[in-house]
Amino acid sequence: MTKRQRIVVVGHGMVGHRFAQAAVERGLTETHDVLVIGEEPRAAYDRVALTSWFGSGSDALSLLPGGEYDNPRVRLVLDSVVTEIDRVARTVTVVSPPSAVDDLLANPGAVTVHEYDVLVLATGAAPFVPPVEGRGKDGCFVYRTIEDLEAIRAASAAATSGVVIGGGLLGLEAANALVQLGLDTHVVEMAPRLMPVQLDGAAGATLVRHIERLGVSVHTGMVTEAILGTHSAGGSSVTGLRLRQAGTEEGAPTQVVDAQVVVFSAGIRPRDALARECDLEVAPRGGVLVDEQCRTADPHVFAIGECAAPGGTMYGLVAPGYAMAEVVVDALLDGPGAFTGADMSTKLKLLGIDVASFGDAFATTDGALELTYADAVAGVYKKLVVSDDGRRLLGGILVGDASAYGVLRPMVSSGLALPDNPEQLILPASSGVQLGMPDEAQVCSCNDVTKADILHAVTEQGCETVADVKQCTRAGSTCGSCVATVKNVIEDHFASVGKVVDKGLCEHFRLTRQELFDVVAVHGYRRFDDIVAAHGTGRGCDVCKPAIASILASQTSTHILEPATAELQDTNDAYLANIQRNGTYSVVPRIPGGEITPDKLIVIGEVARDYGLYTKITGGQRIDLFGARMEQLPEIWRRLVEAGFESGHAYGKSLRTVKSCVGSTWCRFGVQDSVGLAIALELRYRGLRSPHKLKGGVSGCARECAEARGKDFGVIATEKGWNLYVGGNGGATPAHAKLLAGDLSTETLVSYLDRFLMYYVRTADRLQRTSTWIDQLDGGLDRVRSVVVDDSLGLGAELEAEMARHVGGYEDEWRATLEDPSKLARFVTFVNAPDTPDPSIAFTTERDQIQPIAPARIPVGAPA
Amino acid sequence: MTAVAVSLTPVCAVDAVPLEGGVAALVDGSAVAVFRSFDGEVFALSNVDPFSGASVLSRGIVGSRGDAPVVSSPMYKQAFDLRTGACLDDATVRVTTYDVAVVDGVVHVGPTREVA
Ligand code: SRM
Ligand SMILES: Cc1cc2nc3c(=O)[nH]c(=O)nc-3n(C[C@H](O)[C@H](O)[C@H](O)COP(=O)(O)OP(=O)(O)OC[C@H]3O[C@@H](n4cnc5c(N)ncnc54)[C@H](O)[C@@H]3O)c2cc1C
Ligand code: SF4
Ligand code: FES
């Protein structure tokens, strides 16, 4: 057996992370150990979506929410910098602060040396700060990391105006952030137009008009001479910028722009210093020089992502970096993968404006022709670059309306012949021709997913929605710009096979659950018969009846076993207990938050003993009693209700448990009373009928002992209050909950939760957990946040009022059943022999408790 | 007064069987599920769910599939035609059906029925 090899990865950014993921997925970790060393204090995050940090915080951006890889062969050390590479000894030197290392490396807070067999440089790039006078003043920033954004936000609190130096892609992104922070925003660009790398003059001018309309002042063709400001003992501060026309000499007239915040965004430079220092060759314009396998001249050293320059070119986008990561994993598995260049097409939404540039956007190909369409009023500019014979599309630029991007860009890469009137492709939609995309067209460039891959997922893997395809292929999971195209591909496919994707509930209703919910609310229906008569056909089934029962329960708070709804209930709801394989039932009393007194524990023990029930602690912090015959249920409930218990709704598509950790009352780390909150939330939402079951969790600190982020709603205590996470679950397709809002007071938390849960109850599909519901909403989590936190639909008060009605109308379903002889009547096994137990139920004993004996299987009565 | 065949066993008042619901009865030692469809027609099938072996069919949801009145098993949800006992999700499976009659407001269950 050969010795395990050790891979050291320098840098845990987007590409370093993808490398580690690919190493696990492709089985490289079976022969190699991977040590990833990252300089930033947190695990890799989605830098592409950096600006959304202002709205949703760090957790939502994380690419590795737990901060650790599941696979024990991959170790991650953060907050640590590789300072030196010794290529002869094959070691790297790492400097870590004490906090970063405690249990991972033996030598806290010191310099450690690690051997490697393979070294992968994934150190990314750093913003370039031009040597402008005054650039070191407090108030000057770059835009690359979460820490940069934190600093910008802090400085903006006391500022009124800000300037971004650089009008490229990232500069405009930064300007967007300053606008969001409420600053009077300026952009200074040396070139005569914005986004000079991607746009031509006319496109740049169109973009300027859009951006100025948003209140951003654009200064193109200007250079920054100096950053003005003051110096004092306590530090320095910025007061403004001195600008001069590009191309003029020093001494020429200048202009001053007031600003307290300056963000440099004048390009990036590969972080190749480590490589230079160990004598690896770098490209003339920076970047570690590597071959098609991303290998340097030293066969043990690779470079990937923005720090690398395959064939001499560095790529400042994430997709080429991901491709390089895959290529290196492939190379280490002796595969044939090669990186041969990348599509540098860009499409983005800048301050809400569509901008796209792809292929030979500047018509540099010999004989290339340009077709342009411009509508100054609407602010739309579109240009196509076509080959001299007019047969092939070479590239293009779109500003103001980039809806054609999804069709056009793949045409460039696949060489599909242009239609006879190519101008139709950029004319406004009404006159446009509908053009098919070839199968090999790459739809998602971030993750290299082609149309064929998506179709495969749809036809072979049962995907029906964007969310399904995202999960199967990763398409759309990075920058999101391809989502609309992914959706079209899916819909076109279904249309082409003549299949209307039927969202109807079942053969009896063409309506979706959400539509039914609204229909019931609008008409005030209370009976299935009225609903099916007006909106359905037939007599219903085990799909639509429970769905309607749930909708009626959510809207009315009447007991689910009332005559109008009793026969609609799903198996378990129908008897307020969970059916077991032999026809007996389990009984789960509510134990809010998992807290229980010894006296109550004793009662549960006594009941279990007296009825001979199998007893088990559940995965939900409570106790399940199994093996009760149907006619025993009321007696068992009576004993429990008398002792102060109520139904735990283990049977309902409704709130199950709110799991708690012990929290600040006992735990030395706890910062809030997590048990108290868990109990309050469980009691508030108990009995709420919902599209699927709901679970919650509350942890007393970030150690997260309650696994709150594995729940539909999870709350984690902070020094200042509570962080609210939504959309988590375990089960068949686990999902981690994502941060909805942070540092909330208990009151705000409850109002957000009321809104969130009611919005879910109203709009989710049948049997859709919160995570899939959020994924399928147009806009996903941002949509939820805008409805719940920003109240963008003005629904907040209504949703809260509906929840208040639910809370006010709650009654224990067991107690209410015990008090109503007509409901109790159904709990007999045989109508004509109420005292005879079901003779087919039998038990054996295992580990001192009962276990069902499988009923003797009767021969099925198939016709002879 | 209507003549009642001797082999019919009175089981319960017809009102004791919920519309679009079922009850179980013990008839000559066998568990029989008695259902009423929406229009009040009464059916009797073996109460035993052939897929799980548990005696539970009477607790299933009654509705329709196409034109057939059906009950779906509470255990694994297969649908059975109330008229014939045929499983609509697995053509090889059928549950026993019983003769049934309502006489003077009382449900009577008879011998197992032969289905062609
Ligand atoms: C009893 C228990 C297992 C145990 O012995 O610990 C259990 C038992 C059942 N689970 Fe569970 N689940 C139990 C905790 C869990 C957990 C763990 C948790 O809650 O922390 C999970 C994963 C977490 C989650 O839901 O996100 C879990 C994921 C499921 C799923 C998959 C849901 C999904 O989204 O994929 C189902 C199926 C379903 O609901 O459709 C399910 C369904 C069921 C049902 C209700 C199936 C049924 O209809 O017969 C089981 C019968 C319960 C009974 O007879 O009392 N159970 N189940 C646990 C009861 C917890 C409680 O106190 O209420
Ligand atoms: C605001 C913004 C918007 C963007 N938008 C887009 C977009 O829309 N589309 C797109 O394709 N790209 C976009 N990008 C670019 C994209 O983020 C990068 O291409 C991508 O992050 C590159 O990944 P990487 O792993 O090579 O570098 P990084 O993600 O920068 O990761 C490198 C990591 O290595 C660490 N590191 C460096 N040196 C050391 C050392 N000596 N020891 C230890 N660790 C070290 C760094 O701290 C860093 O964490 C955007 C970038 C920004 C900043
Ligand atoms: S999550 Fe924090 S407060 Fe709760 S038990 Fe764990 S360490 Fe203690
Ligand atoms: S193109 Fe970025 S996620 Fe698909």
What this model shows, in words?
Chain A has 864 residues and is of the alpha/beta class. Chain A has 26 helices and 38 strands. In chain A, strand 14 and strand 15 (254-258) form a beta hairpin. Chain B has one domain (9-112): Rieske Iron-sulfur Protein. Helix content of chain B is 0%, strand content 44%. In chain B, strands 1-9-8-4-3-2 form a 6-stranded antiparallel β-sheet, with no helix packed on it. In chain B, strands 5-6-7 form a 3-stranded antiparallel β-sheet, with no helix packed on it. Mean pLDDT of chain B is 90; it is low at 1-5. Chain B starts with 8 loop residues before the first strand and ends with a strand. The interface between A and B is large, with 41 and 50 residues. The structure holds siroheme, flavin-adenine dinucleotide (FAD), iron/sulfur cluster and FE2/S2 (inorganic) cluster (FES). Residues 10-16, 37-40, 47-48, 50, 81-82, 122-124, 143-144, 170, 173, 271, 274, 305-306, 316-319, 321, 348, 479 of chain A line the site of flavin-adenine dinucleotide (FAD).
